[in-house]
Specification:
The structure is a single chain. This protein has 10 helices and 6 strands. Helix 2 runs parallel beside helix 3 and helix 7 packs across helix 10. The longest helix is centred in the last third of the chain and has 29 residues. By secondary structure, the protein is α/β, with parallel strands linked by helices. The N and C termini lie far apart (51 Å). The chain is globular. Strands 2-1-3-4-5-6 form a 6-stranded parallel β-sheet, with helices on both faces.
């Protein structure tokens, strides 16, 4: 397995904890998103324990490593971070310290996601069930400029500020300002919330188009005795 976190104390704790567990081998550690992707491709671990706040994009790592079971291990407990990570393809989500102060659940979680299970810390599991039972209403997105829409797409793909700046050919400071403007325009709390709002709006738009298409098909059905084929 691979550990990706930019805090040396966390990495040392996880390596010691997981290395001591029978049947688990930590093959490498990473401190940035690109390094995690490169090491995962080189070593092909069954499991990646990943901090969402990894420099240069934790979400981008999840989206990129589709053949690796990703277990998120982070301090972010907000709904938008959880939903964005799970939609990106994470297999599990644990909170640092709060869910597992002794580290016992971490070992079980690593084995669980390696076996194909979905694993959540206790507090996160309760939130996921609540969100599934009572989804938030989807508000339409305000009109976005072409640049804002492109920025939102790149954020949804998990790119960090430096990568976005390179792709849009802008200065990193300009990207930071654009993100702040976009967050304020969407009326959300941060970049993860902006991504979540964009994903919800896109899903709602697809559902509306599908419903309109189905309604149109029903209205066009001929009446009388003539046969009709869908």
């Amino acid at each position: 397995m691979l550990v990706a976190d930019d805090h040396p104390g966390v990495v040392g704790h996880l390596r010691g904890l997981l290395t001591a567990a029978p049947g688990i081998t930590v093959v490498a550690q990473a401190s940035t998103g690109p390094e995690a992707i490169e090491l995962a491709r080189r070593h092909r671990p069954d499991v990646l324990v990943l901090d969402l706040e990894l420099p240069d994009g934790g979400i981008a790592v999840i989206r990129e490593l589709t053949e690796t079971a990703v277990l998120v291990y982070t301090a972010r407990a907000d709904d938008d971070s959880v939903l964005t990570a799970m939609r990106a393809g994470a297999r599990g989500y644990l909170l640092k310290d709060a869910d597992d102060p002794a580290g016992e659940h971490m070992v079980r979680a690593v084995r669980g996601v390696a076996a194909g299970e979905a694993i959540f810390g206790q507090s996160i599991a309760a939130r996921v069930l609540q969100l599934l039972a009572n989804p938030e209403p989807t508000a339409p997105l305000p009109d976005l400029t072409d640049r804002e829409a492109a920025l939102l797409d790149l954020l949804a793909e998990g790119y960090g500020n430096a990568a976005i700046a390179a792709r849009l050919q802008l200065a990193p400071k300009t990207v930071s300002n654009l993100i702040s403007t976009l967050v304020a325009k969407l009326g959300v709390s941060g970049r993860e919330a902006a991504v979540s709002a964009g994903l919800r709006s896109s899903a709602a738009a697809r559902n509306e188009r599908r419903a309109a298409h189905e309604g149109s098909r029903h209205q066009q059905r001929p009446t009388g005795s003539e046969p009709w084929a869908p």
